[in-house]
Amino acid sequence: MGNAVEFKKINKRFPGAHVLKDVTFSVKDGEVHALLGENGAGKSTLLNILHGVYAEYEGEVLLHGNKVAFKNPNEAIVKGKISKVHQETNVVKDLTVGQNITLGYEPKKGVFVDYKELNNKVDNILTQLRCKFKSSDLAGNLTAGEMQMMAIAKALFHESKIISLDEPTTALTLKETDALFEVIRQLKKDGITILYVSHRLEEIFQICDRASILRDGQYITTLNIADTNRAELIRNMVGRDVAAVAGRTKSGIKQKEIVLKVEGLSSGRKFQDVSFELHRGEIVGFFGLVGAGRTEVMRTLFGADKKTAGRVFLKGKETHIKNTHQGLKDGIGLIPEERKTQGFINLQSNINNVALSSLERYMSGIFVDDTKRRENCEKYIQELEIHPAKADFLTSNMSGGNQQKVILAKWMSTDVDVLIFDEPTKGVDVGAKVEIYRIMEEIAESGKGVILVSSELPEVMGMSDRIMIMSEGRIAGELNREEYYEDHILNLAIGGNDNE
Fold it and tell me: Which of 68, 163, 188, 499 is the most buried (most CB within 10 A)?
């Protein structure tokens, strides 16, 4: 078995950062090869070099034994027969599935697009992938899982021999993930090489043959999945042993005072009759399946969405939060799931993003005191171990885990009493997860109330003092720590009865 891909002494530098350092390893023909590492380890940069996104780098890339140097992703697709399926699939929603898949490479009859041939070609591929949708269907109507399949169909349309999948299951249901894995196994049988990037280690054991691990831009090792275990993978990724499962290190920090009380909160058809209490120093988890209404409840509490009924009390006083500005003023902070679009401003540096929600703290008269702002930012860079440790670095150029820490710093700089974490570790590696859990506990210990919204059951069970389980817009059950049983929680989330 030859090598499909070989990386030889790959180095990549950005201004002020040496991102890849002498990376050398190979991927065999027709294997499913995992690329693992913490956020900022260099995985995405390496894939971007492979796919022609970055043409400037040192070292060599070989495909099937031949040295290649692609000027752009289009050249990688056409000449290298190599495609990337992105985490967030780029879809032109107003075009059909067939038009999306063949975009820019449509089969022609004279000067016109030959739609009959286009649809036939694409439908053959969709049948091969066992997709339920057709070439003529509108792309905008597809589910996240179907869009992922469409991206794979696009790779097959270009007759790609190497396909990389970057966090492909982030937005997928369990059923869609199973369907994706079936397709990957089939592609492997057909001799296609798959590069697989995921933070979900259980997936690596299900689907991959070998895993290469990067740490701080350096190649660490390649392991056979059949001969390794979770602990060894994590140890190589973070350079230390980490209990990957969320767990509390501080107990008994819950105080008597109720900082937030919610009575009969409703928002039209999104959710109905939600009631709960949150104490100072307490972490309350909200668990539910996709579409249960958890995020909508939090957005309404924060003032981003309107309530249609119910009452909210902060520190014993009723509050009528009409917008996010007032939510912040009344003492509620929200760390959103969509951090790239809602958590920070894209073209701003860390110093500006950290100060976003607490500007009044840095005022001297009518002017902003930059020294105070910088001191505050640098304090949190140290405390949260943000990398690169630079106040003037663009937040958008950082890895997902470090972006999440900048958003945390933004909220820790404010005087909020209630902090809501919505999917705080989504797309974040093991090392950053552990740090985020530690920060959550510190925030609770400082006397704030913390709400954790998460789809990861081990995370909710490990971190929460109590769990509220939501199903179809309502609270289906409330459990204390001694009542946490995985099957019972899932049963409630699926719509079972609390008495079962």
Answer: 163
